[in-house]
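Last lecture ended with a question: if I hand you only a sequence, what can you say about the shape of the protein? Today we answer it with a concrete record. The protein is Osteoclastosis associated transmembrane protein 1. Below, first the input exactly as provided, then the predicted structure, then a couple of comments.
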Amino acid sequence: MDPDRTVARQRSSLLLLRLLLVALLWSGLALGTFSLGSSPHQVLHDLLSEQQLLEVEDLSLALLQGGRLGPLSLPPDLPDLDPDCRELLLDFAHSTSELTGCLVRSARPVRLCQTCYTLFQQVANKMDNISRAVGNSSESHSCARSLLMADRMQIVVILSEFFNSTWQKANCANCLTNKSEELSNGTVHFLNLFNHTLTCFENNLQGSTHSVLQLRNYSEVCKNCHEKYKALSSLYSEMQKMNELENKAESGTHLCIDVEDAMNITRKLWSRTFNCSVLCSDTVPVIAVSVFILFLPVVFYLSSFLHSEQKKRKLILPKRLKSSTSFANIQENSN
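The predicted structure:
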């Protein structure tokens, strides 16, 4: 830009600002709002509100900076995003904001897989669009380079990796179909049974109106909700077995966090809060086998005592003693 032209524009801006102040001064004199001895700063405070004064200051600064209103434009030598690339960045920002809010709202109780999977897919799609995007300029200034590799921080990449890591740790893919478009049938069935179990708990707690300091009697909950809890626990065990069979190569695999948290909540309510118990179907055989093993030593020693041969001790006399005894008997008979 020509320096002489810039100076001329600044002088004209100052002249315009002075004319504006003079007009304000004469209007104040005509209305009698202030006296001739008032200072210009006091004149402005008398005529304008605080917000209007700030606007006038911004206007004067804009005029002094070359007559342009609003923020200064970037120098022409700095690279800027093209409109299409900036739109992709704004779309990614909007989708990540929605996903972050969903994850936080679904933190407790954990419902993030069933609530946020559509938003996660949106973020993944926006990231794919940025990765494939190429600007209208040369390849070195493409949209993907500008947004993903232009600086050390790489904020877009960090955010994308954070969401992917969170999704993998939650193992949300285990709750969804293969294409992650909707919840799987097993997950829907489990969540429905979980909701029915909680509803049963609530319905059987309505009649309990004891004081907080007294021990509540949850016998009705244990009796009426036994079948629902047992069905839910059995379904969870089946889902665990199926997951282990499908992921034999991967050690320590889990179900999705929504299912695990739901089962943990139900078990804590059932065992800790309601103090209910479920007898295992294998309890009787286990007890019978244990008793049999404990009595095995007794049976063994008793049978050994009864069936063993009792050998009597026999006294065997020496031959000499036997002969002398017989000789003594002969002498007694002869006498």
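Comments.
1. The radius of gyration is 47 Å.
2. The chain has 13 helices and no strands.
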